[in-house]
Design a protein that fits this description.
Layout (H helix, E strand, L loop, with lengths): L1 H46 L5 E6 L5 E5 L7 H13 L2 H11 L14 H15 L3 H15 L2 E2 L4 E2 L5 E2 L6 E2 L2 E3 L6 H11 L2 H17 L10 E4 L6 E5 L11 H18 L2 H16 L38 H17 L5 H12 L19 E4 L4 E5 L2 H17 L1
Antiparallel strand pairs: 1-2, 3-4, 5-6, 7-8, 8-9, 10-11
Helix pairs in contact: 1-2, 1-12, 2-3, 2-4, 2-12, 4-5, 4-6, 5-6, 6-7, 8-9, 8-10, 9-10, 10-11, 10-12, 11-12
Length: 410
């Protein structure tokens, strides 16, 4: 009888503890929502009404720098506003998100680079998720049609960039494809579902399969850039553009891969994609060069023996252990989804811990500081000498997405 009473008491105390923990975490989420809304309200006071330019980062003086709509990051700030509507349910955020999304409408026919998925699905995609309409659906379908024009059956990939040279200034990239491109496939799946046209689905799957073959190393680390032969379709070389060296692992590139293959599994249920997402996540989380707080350095191999930047890369001269919060936010958001498919791997716990770390004073800005961006300490591209230890709009976007996913899990 006493044993039964003890077991019952233990169970009751456990339930009380669980309820208390969940309540504490709901308060944690609420506090982050409150801060994010207040910080973004300050940013909106500075930017004023949308004028065709979109917040991206800060300059050396800590002032906000905006870009035009053709920049690959233009869809993130409208996306932030949609997530604030998602997180608060307040019509004022829906209305301001509508106003900031509208200037991107003409991009639905843009075909100059692969980032149309970032530009349109982070903005109009979130609009459709939260405020569906036929007009928004047609804009997204037309955007997918434009993105699909960059697909080549010969290479089995969507061309990321137009012609450019590698950092050694001798290798020419006529058909460069970057790991980031995995993130743009979600737009194609949307178009396939809404139109019933299989071609968008097939392009996404073909691109992902080719990426799995040529971008992912046997240990499930990743190359940033693969350059394809325009005559044979074969992969000619594997390199980097924003990482430390061609054979290193750029932190945000690894993050794009984890997120990208997770969404591929969601859309196809192909176990090869789930395995890739899991193996890439494990490589990231268990790497000996990952700091104890799980916020990575900008490249896992920067400064190590056997990794040498090319001659024109500024990674040769810019030293320092810079963190990349943007990579951490992408991984955090991805893990909140990945844990649904592999619940026994501990990804949920890792994601919660990383979200708490990102929300700490070490990485979350003080109110009214940091150009009114939410998070600090991201890196755009050290090889270009650009956006080093600054806030970046897409770090805020994936932080808010992760916060939304965590809120939904509680």
């Amino acid at each position: 009888m006493n044993i039964v009473k003890n077991i019952t008491l233990f169970t009751l105390l456990g339930c009380i503890s669980l309820v208390s923990c969940k309540s504490k975490e709901k308060l944690f989420v609420a506090e982050n929502i409150e801060f994010s809304t207040r910080q973004t309200q300050l940013m909106l006071k500075e930017t004023g009404e949308p004028k065709g330019s979109f917040p991206r980062r800060t300059n050396a003086e800590g002032k906000i720098i905006c870009t035009d709509k053709y920049d690959w990051t233009s869809g993130f700030f409208p996306g932030n506003l949609w997530y604030l509507y998602d997180l608060t349910g307040k019509a004022e955020w829906r209305d301001v998100a509508d106003r900031w999304t509208a200037p991107l409408k003409s991009l639905q026919t843009f075909k100059e680079h692969h980032d149309l998925g970032f530009m349109m699905y982070c903005s109009y995609g979130n609009q459709y998720r939260l405020q569906p309409s036929e007009q928004t659906k047609q804009i997204l379908i037309e955007s997918a049609r434009s993105l699909a024009t960059r697909f080549s059956p010969l290479t089995g990939t969507i061309k990321s960039w137009n012609y450019r040279k590698a950092w050694n200034d001798s290798v020419e990239w006529f058909y460069p494809v970057i790991i980031d491109n995995m993130m743009n496939l979600e737009l194609l799946f949307f178009a396939s579902r809404e139109t019933g046209d299989r071609k968008y689905y097939d392009i996404a799957v073909t691109h992902a399969n080719t990426t799995l073959k040529n971008h992912i190393r046997p240990d499930f680390s990743s190359y940033h850039v693969v350059n394809y032969d325009t005559l044979t379709g074969a992969a000619r070389n594997q390199a980097t553009n924003q990482g430390y060296s061609d054979n290193s692992t750029w932190a945000r590139g690894q993050a794009w891969g984890i997120y990208g293959f997770t969404l591929m599994y969601r859309e196809t249920k192909d176990p090869a994609y789930l395995n890739a997402a899991m193996r890439m996540a494990d490589w990231y989380l268990n790497h000996p060069n990952l700091p104890s707080d799980k916020i990575p350095y900008w490249d896992f191999n920067a400064g190590q023996k056997g990794y040498v930047p090319e001659i024109k890369s500024q990674a040769r001269t810019i030293t320092g252990t810079y963190r990349d919060v943007s990579a951490a936010t992408v991984v955090t958001s991805a893990l909140f989804e990945l844990c649904k498919y592999i619940p026994n791997k501990g990804y949920y716990k890792e994601a919660v811990e990383m979200l708490h770390t990102l929300s700490s004073p070490a990485y979350r800005a003080k109110l009214g500081e940091n150009g009114n961006f939410i998070l600090m300490h991201s890196v755009g591209s050290i090889p270009h000498g650009a956006e080093i230890d600054v806030p970046l709009v897409y770090a805020d976007y994936y932080f808010l997405e992760a916060l939304s996913r965590y809120r939904d899990s509680l």
